[in-house]
Write a structure and sequence with these properties.
Elements lengths: L1 E5 L2 E6 L2 E7 L17 E7 L2 E7 L5 E5 L8 E6 L3 E7 L7 H13 L4 E6 L7 H10 L5 E3 L8 H8 L3 E5 L6 H8 L7 H10 L8 E4 L5 E4 L13 H4 L27 H7 L6 H14 L2 H4 L6
Parallel strand pairs: 3-5, 8-9, 8-11, 9-10, 11-13
Antiparallel strand pairs: 1-2, 2-3, 4-5, 6-7, 12-13
Helix pairs in contact: 1-8
The chain binds guanosine-5'-diphosphate (GDP) and zinc ion.
Guanosine-5'-diphosphate binds next to helix 4.
């Protein structure tokens, strides 16, 4: 399993240890993204800690970005064989931001990956939970409550991660590192550090890294989950990234309904009738607007 890449060198997890490897043969001449983090590869061991990658096992999934606009968009794979996306929020400090949570969930949906939500720091605000649970369970996302401080929900989280490859997403400060350390002491994440750089707008790396869990499975540590615009989601496809909207799609008066201001929109009616929390429609509107701006200006638009 490929854990990380630095230039033309890959770190590969094999039999519970890590070795470095380079590409061999025709793999070397294929395009740059031929081997990505999460790929299960065939190896020729040259020494106990080095080898050559000679083949790739077919991927069961791939998390990929697509540069929007610019005519033919090229897919940029971030990680292969991802099983699920975990979005971590905190009940308080920082306050949960539905817009940001929805943003991560959209990326999961656009990549056809199942997602679930963890509300950490549950002991800080017992009232924050139910509203979040309603919001996301209505969309079909499992919601788990955890507290590193009060030691709650950690076994469930451990079980949810065990044996799977999980992309970890969440705002800085919600407790991602703390949760992973509670599950496996010593586990190191880079997410926090990188999202700091994101905030100052200096850093644009998309490099992901896989962190092996002792109990089996991997956590995908990746920056750059925040910029929905960078994932190449077409505005017209956005509504289907909201699972609770899906049963209403196709029932609007207009075939090309954007579910914004059109009359007789089935999605809007669904929200009005309480079929799902109306605030999810607010997220939809914001994201729609964001995806609709030309790509050249998207770098300047970092809406909440
Ligand atoms: P990350 O940026 O998402 O990786 O967040 P960290 O793991 O660095 O945690 C940010 C802060 O929240 C640290 O000061 C942690 O000690 C604190 N923290 C993490 N989990 C909990 C929790 O369950 N309850 C409380 N009260 N604080 C927590
Ligand atoms: Zn509509």
């Amino acid at each position: 399993m490929v854990l990380a890449r630095a230039g033309s060198t890959y770190r590969v997890h094999v039999d519970g240890r890590e070795i470095t490897a380079t590409l061999r043969g025709k793999l070397k001449h294929k395009d740059d993204d031929r081997v990505v983090v999460g790929d299960v590869v065939e190896l020729d061991l040259e020494s106990p800690d080095s080898g050559a990658i000679t083949g790739i096992t077919p991927r069961k999934s791939v998390l990929e970005r697509r540069a929007a606009g610019q005519g033919a968009s090229r897919a940029q794979p971030i990680a292969a064989n991802v099983d699920q996306v975990l979005v971590v929020v905190s009940a308080r400090d920082p306050e949960p931001t539905p817009r940001m949570i929805d943003r991560f969930l959209i990326i999961a949906e656009a990549n056809h990956l199942p997602a679930f939500v963890v509300v950490n720091k549950a002991e800080l605000d017992r009232d924050a939970g139910p509203a979040l649970a309603t919001r996301y369970q209505a969309a079909g996302y499992p919601v788990l409550f955890t507290s590193v401080k009060a030691v709650e929900g950690l076994e469930e989280l451990e079980r949810a991660l065990r044996g799977r490859e999980t992309v970890l997403a969440g705002q800085s400060g919600v407790g991602k590192s703390s949760l992973l350390n509670a599950i496996e002491p010593g586990l190191k994440l880079r997410i926090g550090a990188i999202s700091e750089k994101w905030r100052t707008g200096k850093h644009t790396t998309t490099a992901a890294e896989l962190i092996p869990l002792k109990a089996g499975g991997y956590v995908v540590d990746t920056p750059g989950m925040r910029e929905v615009g960078a994932w190449g989601i077409e505005p017209a496809d956005l509504a289907s990234c909201f699972p609770e909207f899906r049963s209403f799609l196709g029932q609007c008066r207009f075939d090309n309904c954007r579910h914004l201001t059109e009359p007789s929109c089935a999605v809007r009616r669904g929200a009005e009738e309480g079929a799902f929390p109306a605030d999810r429609l607010v997220s939809y509107e914001r994201l729609y607007e964001e995806l609709n701006v030309p790509s050249w200006s998207s770098g300047r638009r970092r809406g909440s």
